[in-house]
Amino acid sequence: MVRGQPLPGSRIRCARAPETPFAGAAHRRATASRRHEASAPLRIIPRMDSAVRVPTLPGATFRLPPQLEGLRRLAFNLWWTWHPRAKILFSRVDGPAWTRYRNPIPVLAGPVAWSELLDNPAFMAEYQQVIREFDGYMTDGADHWFHRRHADTLSGPIAYFCAEYGFYESLGIYSGGLGVLAGDHVKSASDMALPLVAVGLMYRKGYFRQTIDADGHQEHAYPDFDLTRLPLLRVQDQEGDPLEVSVELPGRTLSVAVWLAQVGRVPVLLLDTDVPENDEADRPITHILYVRGREMRLHQELVLGVGGVRAIRGLGVEPVAWHLNEGHSAFLLAERARERATPCSRSTHRSRPATSASTSISSGASPDRSSTATTGPRRAASRSSGCSRSGAGRTATIDSST
Predict the structure, then answer these.
(1) The pTM is what?
(2) What is the C-alpha to C-alpha distance for residues 52 and 214, in angstroms, rounded to an integer?
(3) What's the CATH number of domain 158-385, 3.90.1150.10, 3.30.365.10, 3.40.50.2300, 3.40.50.2000?
(4) What is the overall mean pLDDT for the chain?
């Protein structure tokens, strides 16, 4: 867990660094980068020249002055979450709206006095400086750690799976330390220009907020996110249509939509079962983080593991290594072993060595009681691929501790 972490559901204040688990993230990433520079090179296999590009459908429609169109690109990339000048810029667009939402999409979509901003030399100078910094970050990866140390070693990206990501308070798809760690991990990969594609779940109701009723009893209140007001975009398939993948459940097939959260140079694919094609009982599978109930939890992990692999395949991306942050995505092992199984046999015995050799698993504290409901199926998935929870085949391990 991150030291000083607030209780789930409590408000995270980001104005002063010590008050939030996101505080000091830039310092931690800079320290991580220096440690990587001082250490022996990571043992990564194969070679990649550029970041993974994910095509998307148009996002939220709001009009901006042509001179400030760069704000749209900035808003739909979570780069701003760890660059204070970008957050200050959005707060100068509409201070009260920024304080309320901590999210640039509703800020830009609201009633903004654009003419006053265009006539403000200080604002325009700050805007141009932030956009230059952002564009330079996104286009110049040659001078970063990965390209200096491993530019000739990767032939494809690394796939990174986690059940939660803590990027910022306004995108509430995390609950605590695991999510904050995963979020920082993705941001660090972006800073180092590491070719990474991350996969998680799009929790439309996120994690509960704690409230107290009139009798003093604690209650759980779940937010209901409007995805059109979040910095997310629907992913397109290779034909230009909205990407959906299928996951088989007993007696039915589940349709899974794919959203993109762009985090600097790293695309994060978020899977969503709340689509019209699914039965009413199945649409909430991805609504709540760490949902209660053995069956619903198992379905979530099937969507993450199996659906995540199929989403990556649907984009034509071929990872050279797969990293599981905790065991929630263990079914990706079974899915990848199934892919490699021979057509004339359902056995995954021969596909296990190749699956294991390109897989690493990081495991922290013992699972809580709610997560033990799927421990058996997870172990079965690991056995089907020949990969243990300790992480057999660490050919492309990214050490989160540094």
Answers:
(1) 0.79
(2) 51
(3) 3.40.50.2000
(4) 80
